[in-house]
Amino acid sequence: MPEITEGSVVMRNSTPRSKPSGRALYLLSSVEKFREAGRWTLAARSTANCLLCYVVRGSGSIALDGSLCSFGPACMIVIPPGLSAEAEALDPEIEYYSVETEVVVLAPGASGWQVLPEGGPPQPFGLPCGMTRLREPGQALDDILRLYDGWQRGLEPPPALDLHLQALLARIIADAAKPDVEAQARRDRRTTAGSVELSIAYMHEHFHERIDRETLAELENLTPNAFCRSFKRATSLSPTDYLNRLRIEKAKQRLSPRSSVKEIAAACGFGSEYYFSRMFKKQVGLAPTLYIKRERLKVAVATFIGLESHLGSLGVEPIALFDCYKGPSMNETEHRRQLDARMNELRLAKPDLILVDYYHRSYTELLKTVAPTVSIGLHLDWKVTLTRIAELVGREAEAEQLIRVLEDKTSVARSRLSATLPRTSVTFMQITGDRVRIQGAVHHPLNELLYSELRLTPGSAVPRNRMRVELAPESFEGLQSDYLFINKFDHSAEVEHSFAQLRSTSEWHAIPAVRNSRAPFVNNWLIDSFTPPGRTRIIDQLVNLLDSRPNALS
User: How many whole angstroms separate alpha carbon 259 and alpha carbon 71?
Assistant: First the structure.
C-alpha cells in the first residue's frame, strides 16, 4: 500500500532489494495532452522518467523493447524509464494524455533516509510495463484531467499536484492489487479480453498474405466468434477493420509516381485493386491515383475557418477560395447570388481537389460536380487539422517543422507573459447582432491557447467548464478583468447597436480593463486560433501588450 508523505507517493519497491529495503518516491514532472492525426507513428525512443499514457480516443499498437501489444480507448500504458517505446496508429486520430513522473529511490540509513544512486525500479508502481486495464477508467481520467488542468494553468502549487498524482497512483495500485482468479486463469490460457498480442503481431508480420480469422483465433486459443469479440474489446475494431487499416498504412508508405496501384494492392494483401482503392479512399480521403500525385495537385478550399491559411503555411497556394458561409445578417437572395458567383469561379479554376471545412459540408455534393472533395472535420486542436491537410498535399515534413516552431514560440511567450504579467486576468468578448459572447476556458482552440498553453488567468465572467456564454447586452452584469479583448462579428448596424447598448451600461464602465484603457478591438481570434498564422498573430498581439497599451475606449 502507498504511504503518503508531503504530498508525494512513497511505495515499497516491488523488486527485492538488499536490506535495508528501498522505497521509490514519485514526483510529478509534467502532464501533456496530445492529439495526433493522419499517418502518425512514434519512432523508437526511450525516456529517463516513468510515463503513464492514458488513451482517450483511437487505437493502434505499441512495442516496448520489441514486445508488441495493442491499445485502444480507456487504456493506460505504463512505460518504465529506459525502456524503448515505438508506436503506430491505426485510427485517423489519436488522443492521449501523458503523465511523466520522476523517480527517486530512497533507503533508510544511520542518519535517516538517503537517496540511492541507482535510480528507479524497473517496473514502476508495482505493475508490469505495457498496457494496463483499469476497472474504473472514468475515475482515472478524472484524476488525469485534474492533474492536467492544474499543471497547464499553473493554478495549483507542486505539493497539491503531487497529492492529485497520489490519487491516480493509488487507484492504479488498488486495481492491480484486486484479485481476479477467473481473469488470471484466462490469461494462462491466453484468452483474456485484451490478450490479442499474438494475433496483432501476426498481422504486422504477414499483412501482405491472406489472413483469415480462423488462423488468428487459433493463435489466441479461441473460437473464431470469441476471438472477434475479444479483439473488438481490446482494440475497438474488428479484426478485418484493423487489418485493412494496417494494410492501408503500409500502402501509403509504398505508393509513389513510379509505382503501380495494382502491384501495391497485391503487395499489401489486397486481392482486388478495386477493393483496395475503395478502402484507401474511405480511410485516406483520396483515391490512390490522386494520392500518388498529391504534391502536384491544384487545390481549392471551401472554408469559413481559414483552411487556406493552413495550406499557405505549408507552402501551398490554393487556386480558388469558396466561402459561402451564410452569416446572420445575410439574406437568402444575397446568399444565392454569392453562391452562384463562387461556383463559377471554382469551375473556371479547374481544381484537382477541393478541401471542405465543417461549415461547408452541406455543399459537398455540389462541389463534387467540379472536382473530388475531402471533408476536413472541425477539430479543436489545430495540429490535427494541419497534419491532416499536410498528408493530403504531401507536406508532412513541413507540418512537423511548423508545429515545432509554434510550440517553441508559445513556450517563449508563456514564460515572458508569466514573468511580466503574473496573475493578470484576460477575457475575450465577441459582439454579434443581438448577443454578447464571452469565451470560456475550454472546448475551443482560442480558449486552450489563452488559458492552458499560455496559462493566462481567466476573468471573473469566463466560464471555467464551458466553451462560452451568451448574454443579451441589456442583461450584461459585472466583469472583473485586467484585459478585455473585443471583436465585432461584422460591421452591420445590428452589431453596432448591440455594442452601443453595452457601452451605455454602468457595468461596462466599471470593468477594470475599460477604466484602465486595456480593452482593445482585435481581429476574430475565434477563427484565427484554428490556423498557424492566426495563432502567431494572437501570440504577437498578446506579447506586444508588454510594450504598449491599447487605445482607450470611451
Answer: 32
Match 494483401 to its residue by C-alpha cell: 269
3-state SS of 31-78 is: EEEEEEECCCEEEEECCCCEEEEEEEECCEEEEECCEEEEECCCEEEE
Q: For the CA atoms of 522, 526, 528, 530, what is the dihedral angle to 10 degrees?
A: 160
- 239: preceding bond cis by omega (within 30 degrees): no
Displacement of CA 393 from its chain's centroid (Å): 21
Backbone angles phi, psi at 60, to 5 degrees: 175, -155
Distance of CA 196 to CAs 96, 180, 218, 346, Å?
A: 21, 19, 11, 49
CA-wise closest residue to 222 among 203, 196, 183: 196
Let me know if 364 is exposed, middle or buried by CB neighbors in 10 A (0-12, 13-18, 19+).
middle
The Cα 426–Cα 455 span in angstroms is: 11
Give residue for cell 480507456. Answer: 74
- Which residues of the chain register pLDDT less than 70? 1-22, 37-46, 66, 68, 92, 116-128, 133, 153-155, 175-195, 328-329, 546-554
Q: Are strands 457-458 and 483-488 parallel, antiparallel or unpaired?
A: unpaired
pLDDT at 8: 35
Q: Are strands 41-45 and 50-57 parallel, antiparallel or unpaired?
A: unpaired
C-beta of residue 2 within 8 angstroms of C-beta of residue 173: yes
**Are the C-beta atoms of residues 359 and 322 closer than 8 Å to each other?**
no
Angle of CA points 316, 322, 325, to nearest 5°: 130
Q: Are the CB atoms for 530 and 445 separated by under 8 Å? A: yes
> Angle 382-393/396-420 helices, nearest 10 degrees?
160
Q: Which three cell numbers stand for residue 42?
A: 512514434
**What is the model's pLDDT at position 278?**
92
Residue 39 in grid coordinates: 499517418
Distance CA 116, CA 23 (A): 10
Q: Give residue 535's pLDDT.
A: 93
The cell for 296 is 502536384
Please choose, from the candidates 45, 129, 34, 128, the residue with its C-alpha nearest in 3D space to the C-alpha of residue 85: 45
